Amino acid sequence: MASVVQWIQGTRPRTLPNSIAPVVVGAAAAHHIDEFNVLYTVLALVVSVAFQVGVNYANDYSDGIRGTDDNRVGPFRLTGSGAAEPAKVRLAAFISLGVGALAGVALVALSGHWWLLGFGAVCIAGAWFYTGGKRPYGYAGLGEIAVFLFFGPAAVLGTLYVQTGEITGIGIGASIAMGAISAAVLVANNLRDIPTDAVTGKRTLAVVLGDKDTRRLYLALVAVPFLIALGMTVRVPYALLGFLAAPVLLPAVRRVAAGRGGRDLIPVLQFTGIAMLAWAVLVSVGLVLD
Questions:
Q1: Which DSSP string do the residues of 156-173 spell out, in sequence order?
Q2: Which of 21, 27, 60, 264 could form a disulfide with 260 if both were Cys (CB 3.0 to 4.6 A apart)?
Q3: Quick one: angle between helices 266-289 and 169-192, nearest 10?
Protein backbone atom coordinates (compact mmCIF):
# COMPACT_ATOMS: atom_id res chain seq x y z
CA MET A 1 0.00 0.00 0.00
CA ALA A 2 1.47 3.32 -1.09
CA SER A 3 2.33 5.84 1.62
CA VAL A 4 1.18 9.45 1.70
CA VAL A 5 4.67 10.53 0.68
CA GLN A 6 4.56 8.21 -2.32
CA TRP A 7 1.18 9.56 -3.39
CA ILE A 8 2.63 13.06 -3.19
CA GLN A 9 5.59 11.88 -5.28
CA GLY A 10 3.03 10.58 -7.75
CA THR A 11 1.83 14.14 -8.37
CA ARG A 12 5.33 14.84 -9.78
CA PRO A 13 5.98 18.03 -7.80
CA ARG A 14 8.85 19.04 -10.11
CA THR A 15 6.33 19.55 -12.93
CA LEU A 16 3.81 21.67 -10.98
CA PRO A 17 5.42 25.00 -12.00
CA ASN A 18 4.05 24.15 -15.47
CA SER A 19 0.55 24.76 -14.15
CA ILE A 20 1.27 27.62 -11.72
CA ALA A 21 3.47 29.88 -13.85
CA PRO A 22 1.01 30.36 -16.77
CA VAL A 23 -1.78 31.44 -14.43
CA VAL A 24 0.53 33.88 -12.65
CA VAL A 25 1.60 35.62 -15.84
CA GLY A 26 -1.93 35.45 -17.31
CA ALA A 27 -3.29 37.21 -14.23
CA ALA A 28 -0.52 39.81 -14.49
CA ALA A 29 -1.46 40.42 -18.13
CA ALA A 30 -5.03 41.06 -16.93
CA HIS A 31 -3.73 43.42 -14.24
CA HIS A 32 -1.75 45.26 -16.90
CA ILE A 33 -5.03 46.46 -18.44
CA ASP A 34 -6.67 47.03 -15.02
CA GLU A 35 -8.94 43.98 -15.13
CA PHE A 36 -7.40 41.75 -12.44
CA ASN A 37 -9.83 39.59 -10.41
CA VAL A 38 -8.49 37.69 -7.38
CA LEU A 39 -11.29 35.09 -7.24
CA TYR A 40 -11.04 34.31 -10.96
CA THR A 41 -7.28 33.94 -10.62
CA VAL A 42 -7.58 31.53 -7.69
CA LEU A 43 -10.15 29.43 -9.54
CA ALA A 44 -7.97 29.38 -12.66
CA LEU A 45 -5.05 28.25 -10.51
CA VAL A 46 -7.12 25.41 -9.03
CA VAL A 47 -8.17 24.32 -12.52
CA SER A 48 -4.62 24.38 -13.83
CA VAL A 49 -2.97 22.59 -10.90
CA ALA A 50 -5.75 19.98 -10.59
CA PHE A 51 -5.53 19.18 -14.30
CA GLN A 52 -1.73 18.94 -14.01
CA VAL A 53 -1.97 16.50 -11.10
CA GLY A 54 -4.69 14.60 -12.97
CA VAL A 55 -2.60 14.17 -16.10
CA ASN A 56 0.38 13.09 -14.00
CA TYR A 57 -1.62 10.37 -12.26
CA ALA A 58 -3.21 9.36 -15.57
CA ASN A 59 0.25 9.11 -17.13
CA ASP A 60 1.44 7.06 -14.16
CA TYR A 61 -1.50 4.68 -14.58
CA SER A 62 -1.37 4.31 -18.36
CA ASP A 63 2.42 3.94 -18.63
CA GLY A 64 2.36 1.57 -15.68
CA ILE A 65 -0.17 -0.86 -17.09
CA ARG A 66 1.62 -0.83 -20.46
CA GLY A 67 4.92 -1.74 -18.84
CA THR A 68 6.61 1.46 -20.01
CA ASP A 69 7.77 2.25 -16.46
CA ASP A 70 9.04 -1.25 -15.59
CA ASN A 71 12.69 -0.30 -16.01
CA ARG A 72 12.58 3.46 -15.80
CA VAL A 73 15.52 5.64 -14.76
CA GLY A 74 13.46 8.62 -13.64
CA PRO A 75 11.60 9.46 -10.42
CA PHE A 76 9.28 7.12 -8.54
CA ARG A 77 6.06 5.90 -10.17
CA LEU A 78 3.12 4.46 -8.25
CA THR A 79 1.89 1.93 -10.80
CA GLY A 80 5.17 0.90 -12.35
CA SER A 81 6.77 0.30 -8.95
CA GLY A 82 3.82 -1.78 -7.75
CA ALA A 83 3.36 0.52 -4.73
CA ALA A 84 -0.28 1.23 -5.64
CA GLU A 85 -2.97 -0.71 -7.42
CA PRO A 86 -3.55 0.60 -10.96
CA ALA A 87 -7.27 1.12 -10.27
CA LYS A 88 -6.46 3.41 -7.33
CA VAL A 89 -4.04 5.47 -9.40
CA ARG A 90 -6.68 5.78 -12.12
CA LEU A 91 -9.22 6.89 -9.46
CA ALA A 92 -6.75 9.52 -8.23
CA ALA A 93 -6.49 10.81 -11.80
CA PHE A 94 -10.28 10.99 -12.15
CA ILE A 95 -10.65 12.77 -8.80
CA SER A 96 -8.01 15.34 -9.70
CA LEU A 97 -9.55 16.00 -13.10
CA GLY A 98 -12.96 16.21 -11.43
CA VAL A 99 -11.75 18.85 -8.97
CA GLY A 100 -10.37 20.85 -11.88
CA ALA A 101 -13.63 20.46 -13.78
CA LEU A 102 -15.69 21.72 -10.82
CA ALA A 103 -13.46 24.75 -10.38
CA GLY A 104 -13.70 25.36 -14.12
CA VAL A 105 -17.50 25.24 -14.09
CA ALA A 106 -17.52 27.74 -11.21
CA LEU A 107 -15.16 30.03 -13.13
CA VAL A 108 -17.28 29.82 -16.27
CA ALA A 109 -20.49 30.49 -14.33
CA LEU A 110 -19.00 33.56 -12.64
CA SER A 111 -17.45 34.98 -15.81
CA GLY A 112 -20.41 34.13 -18.06
CA HIS A 113 -18.18 32.73 -20.84
CA TRP A 114 -20.12 29.48 -21.21
CA TRP A 115 -18.40 28.44 -24.43
CA LEU A 116 -15.32 27.75 -22.30
CA LEU A 117 -17.01 24.56 -21.05
CA GLY A 118 -16.21 22.97 -24.39
CA PHE A 119 -12.65 24.21 -24.08
CA GLY A 120 -12.41 22.57 -20.65
CA ALA A 121 -13.69 19.29 -22.06
CA VAL A 122 -10.92 19.37 -24.66
CA CYS A 123 -8.37 19.90 -21.88
CA ILE A 124 -9.68 16.90 -19.93
CA ALA A 125 -9.60 14.73 -23.04
CA GLY A 126 -6.07 15.91 -23.74
CA ALA A 127 -5.02 14.99 -20.21
CA TRP A 128 -6.36 11.45 -20.43
CA PHE A 129 -5.40 10.54 -23.98
CA TYR A 130 -1.83 11.77 -23.63
CA THR A 131 -0.86 8.24 -22.62
CA GLY A 132 -4.32 6.67 -22.23
CA GLY A 133 -6.60 4.97 -24.71
CA LYS A 134 -5.71 2.70 -27.61
CA ARG A 135 -3.73 5.33 -29.52
CA PRO A 136 -2.18 7.78 -27.03
CA TYR A 137 -0.80 10.83 -28.78
CA GLY A 138 2.11 10.97 -26.33
CA TYR A 139 3.35 7.76 -27.92
CA ALA A 140 3.24 9.36 -31.36
CA GLY A 141 5.61 12.28 -30.78
CA LEU A 142 2.85 14.84 -30.18
CA GLY A 143 3.32 15.37 -26.45
CA GLU A 144 5.44 18.51 -26.75
CA ILE A 145 2.89 20.16 -29.06
CA ALA A 146 0.09 19.40 -26.59
CA VAL A 147 2.11 20.70 -23.64
CA PHE A 148 2.92 23.89 -25.55
CA LEU A 149 -0.76 24.48 -26.30
CA PHE A 150 -2.25 23.51 -22.95
CA PHE A 151 0.32 25.15 -20.67
CA GLY A 152 0.97 28.06 -23.00
CA PRO A 153 -1.90 29.67 -24.94
CA ALA A 154 -4.64 27.71 -23.15
CA ALA A 155 -3.53 28.45 -19.58
CA VAL A 156 -2.19 31.99 -20.05
CA LEU A 157 -4.81 33.31 -22.45
CA GLY A 158 -7.59 31.43 -20.65
CA THR A 159 -6.66 33.16 -17.38
CA LEU A 160 -6.47 36.49 -19.18
CA TYR A 161 -9.70 36.08 -21.11
CA VAL A 162 -11.99 35.09 -18.22
CA GLN A 163 -10.93 38.28 -16.43
CA THR A 164 -10.90 40.72 -19.31
CA GLY A 165 -12.98 39.26 -22.13
CA GLU A 166 -10.12 39.99 -24.53
CA ILE A 167 -6.70 38.81 -25.69
CA THR A 168 -3.74 41.21 -25.61
CA GLY A 169 -0.39 41.23 -27.36
CA ILE A 170 1.38 40.94 -24.01
CA GLY A 171 -0.76 37.90 -23.19
CA ILE A 172 0.08 36.25 -26.51
CA GLY A 173 3.80 36.82 -25.99
CA ALA A 174 3.66 35.43 -22.45
CA SER A 175 1.67 32.41 -23.64
CA ILE A 176 4.33 31.56 -26.22
CA ALA A 177 7.04 31.91 -23.58
CA MET A 178 5.21 29.64 -21.13
CA GLY A 179 4.36 27.10 -23.81
CA ALA A 180 7.96 26.87 -24.98
CA ILE A 181 9.55 26.39 -21.58
CA SER A 182 6.79 23.99 -20.49
CA ALA A 183 7.51 21.91 -23.58
CA ALA A 184 11.20 22.07 -22.64
CA VAL A 185 10.39 20.32 -19.35
CA LEU A 186 8.83 17.43 -21.28
CA VAL A 187 11.70 17.38 -23.76
CA ALA A 188 14.15 17.02 -20.86
CA ASN A 189 12.05 14.22 -19.37
CA ASN A 190 11.86 12.37 -22.70
CA LEU A 191 15.55 12.93 -23.39
CA ARG A 192 16.35 11.04 -20.21
CA ASP A 193 13.96 8.22 -21.16
CA ILE A 194 15.09 7.70 -24.78
CA PRO A 195 16.71 4.28 -24.11
CA THR A 196 13.74 2.79 -22.23
CA ASP A 197 11.06 4.44 -24.38
CA ALA A 198 12.65 3.13 -27.57
CA VAL A 199 12.59 -0.41 -26.20
CA THR A 200 8.94 -0.26 -25.06
CA GLY A 201 7.68 1.30 -28.29
CA LYS A 202 6.91 4.74 -26.87
CA ARG A 203 7.81 6.94 -29.85
CA THR A 204 8.20 10.29 -28.17
CA LEU A 205 9.58 13.22 -30.11
CA ALA A 206 12.91 12.58 -28.39
CA VAL A 207 12.98 9.01 -29.69
CA VAL A 208 12.20 10.23 -33.19
CA LEU A 209 14.79 13.05 -33.15
CA GLY A 210 17.53 11.18 -31.34
CA ASP A 211 19.75 12.33 -28.49
CA LYS A 212 21.70 15.13 -30.17
CA ASP A 213 18.77 16.90 -31.85
CA THR A 214 16.64 16.55 -28.73
CA ARG A 215 19.29 18.44 -26.77
CA ARG A 216 19.29 21.15 -29.43
CA LEU A 217 15.52 21.38 -29.21
CA TYR A 218 15.66 21.80 -25.43
CA LEU A 219 18.22 24.60 -25.70
CA ALA A 220 16.13 26.37 -28.34
CA LEU A 221 12.93 26.12 -26.29
CA VAL A 222 14.43 27.51 -23.07
CA ALA A 223 15.79 30.49 -25.00
CA VAL A 224 12.30 31.51 -26.17
CA PRO A 225 11.08 33.14 -22.90
CA PHE A 226 14.12 35.41 -22.81
CA LEU A 227 13.62 36.45 -26.43
CA ILE A 228 9.98 37.15 -25.61
CA ALA A 229 10.98 39.23 -22.58
CA LEU A 230 13.32 41.23 -24.79
CA GLY A 231 10.50 41.83 -27.28
CA MET A 232 8.13 42.87 -24.51
CA THR A 233 10.44 45.73 -23.53
CA VAL A 234 9.11 47.70 -26.50
CA ARG A 235 5.91 48.20 -24.46
CA VAL A 236 6.96 47.12 -20.95
CA PRO A 237 10.58 48.03 -20.13
CA TYR A 238 10.37 46.21 -16.79
CA ALA A 239 9.95 42.93 -18.69
CA LEU A 240 13.75 42.80 -18.61
CA LEU A 241 13.31 41.49 -15.08
CA GLY A 242 12.62 38.14 -16.71
CA PHE A 243 16.34 37.80 -17.43
CA LEU A 244 16.95 37.38 -13.70
CA ALA A 245 15.59 33.85 -14.14
CA ALA A 246 18.54 32.93 -16.37
CA PRO A 247 20.93 31.96 -13.53
CA VAL A 248 18.30 29.50 -12.23
CA LEU A 249 18.17 27.83 -15.62
CA LEU A 250 21.94 27.72 -16.16
CA PRO A 251 22.60 24.41 -14.28
CA ALA A 252 19.99 22.67 -16.46
CA VAL A 253 21.42 24.11 -19.66
CA ARG A 254 24.91 22.99 -18.67
CA ARG A 255 23.80 19.40 -18.02
CA VAL A 256 21.95 19.14 -21.33
CA ALA A 257 24.68 20.84 -23.36
CA ALA A 258 27.38 18.67 -21.75
CA GLY A 259 25.67 15.49 -22.93
CA ARG A 260 24.73 14.23 -19.47
CA GLY A 261 22.22 11.37 -19.39
CA GLY A 262 20.25 9.03 -17.16
CA ARG A 263 19.79 10.14 -13.57
CA ASP A 264 22.01 13.17 -14.18
CA LEU A 265 19.13 14.64 -16.19
CA ILE A 266 16.56 14.34 -13.39
CA PRO A 267 17.50 17.73 -11.84
CA VAL A 268 17.04 19.36 -15.25
CA LEU A 269 13.26 19.07 -14.84
CA GLN A 270 13.42 20.80 -11.47
CA PHE A 271 15.76 23.58 -12.59
CA THR A 272 13.69 24.21 -15.73
CA GLY A 273 10.43 24.27 -13.78
CA ILE A 274 11.79 26.68 -11.16
CA ALA A 275 13.21 28.91 -13.90
CA MET A 276 9.80 28.92 -15.59
CA LEU A 277 8.09 30.01 -12.39
CA ALA A 278 10.80 32.59 -11.71
CA TRP A 279 10.41 34.05 -15.21
CA ALA A 280 6.63 34.23 -14.80
CA VAL A 281 6.85 35.94 -11.41
CA LEU A 282 9.55 38.38 -12.50
CA VAL A 283 7.79 39.37 -15.72
CA SER A 284 4.54 39.65 -13.77
CA VAL A 285 6.24 42.06 -11.39
CA GLY A 286 7.36 44.02 -14.42
CA LEU A 287 3.80 44.15 -15.76
CA VAL A 288 2.48 45.35 -12.41
CA LEU A 289 5.19 48.00 -12.08
CA ASP A 290 4.46 49.23 -15.59
A1: IIHHHHHHHSS--HHHHH
A2: 264
A3: 170
